[in-house]
Amino acid sequence: MEKKQKILKILCVYATRQIDSNLFMSSTVFNGLQQCGYEVDIVFMGPLEVVQNFSNRYGHYFHQVYKIVIQESRIKRYLRSDRLKILYSFYLHFLKDGLVRPYKTSALAGILPGGYDCILSFIPPPISGFLAYDVRKLNHLEHVPLVQFWTDPLSLGRCDDISNIPVWRYFHKKLEHKLLRNADRAVFVFPLLCEMEQRLHPEFAHKMVWSDVSYVEHHLNHGCPHNKLITIGLFGAYQRRVRNILPLLAALHSFPEVQFIFRGDSDMTINAADYPNLDIQPGRRPAEEVERLEAQCDILLILGAFSVLALPGKTFYYANYNKPLVFISDGVHRQYFADYLARFEDRYIICNNETESICVALRQAIAVLPNFQLHIPARMDPVRIVRRLIENEE
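The structure assignment produced for this chain is given below.
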């Protein structure tokens, strides 16, 4: 039998206009690549502030960071409402950048030394996948296998099945087709998502596999906080079309001695006077602020969405925090998600998005606080996951 080639040198390619949950998910792979002992470079593209932020937060995972700075949108500076900012961000990430490269391809030619055994591309946004294609072609790396790591779908975003894709998302289906055509292998972060993508793109089904997701080290994670008042945090978007926060709000009244913190984009008005134990600030907050607040909380919440085929990135990103995690499951596939997480060695306290169920889960999380001990499930081992991702090991 021919001996399998040992992979030693990896090139990662990532492009984004903002620090978001997709980057958090991808950063779990950065950790695993480092622990595997690979020599890893990355080509990272984004606006100057994003590139600097990335270098500060994640640069230590890489041997070399090749930075490509693109111009920040001038229009975004003049948008006042959070809703308009979200819509414009979606337009840039998932429409405009999918049609027109925001960089000069000539600037990519000959920037890399070569000698790579694998190229790892992180998607979405779609421009990240096209950047990997351009980098590979313009640096004469066509012989190097290209593996795509998909943390979210494009056309299947906020869908329960391939049968309910909105007409306007067929543009994203075409983008997916172009991206998958370029890949030697595509790894999706959830089994249900992989199954649906295989049905949606049957001609590329043989390229597709799924993988568990690992965790990252949190530099502010210094053990259980032990606040004077037990503090429970929810961080992330909760627009009404995406997530139902009302059952959780109703549950707050059952815990008057607990401090709750909510941060995230929202399109609903919550009267703070109705919830005296709630510290809430809607709108996108700086990543550093959110990470500081996450570390200060005793318990973290993960709120599932209505229509999704994958779990929120925070489900895995939070796993290494030394505190209980409560997953609030919702949507058509909520039992599927609950059953999946139940196989993670009790790392998650799982409930349905109903007030009574949430109250039971919160009481359980509060009860385990005094004697809580962090245990990372074996299936989240970063070395094991990365070797499946890069070398296709089981």
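Interim note for the steering committee: The first strand starts at residue 9 and ends at 15. The chain has two domains: 9-214+382-391, 231-371.
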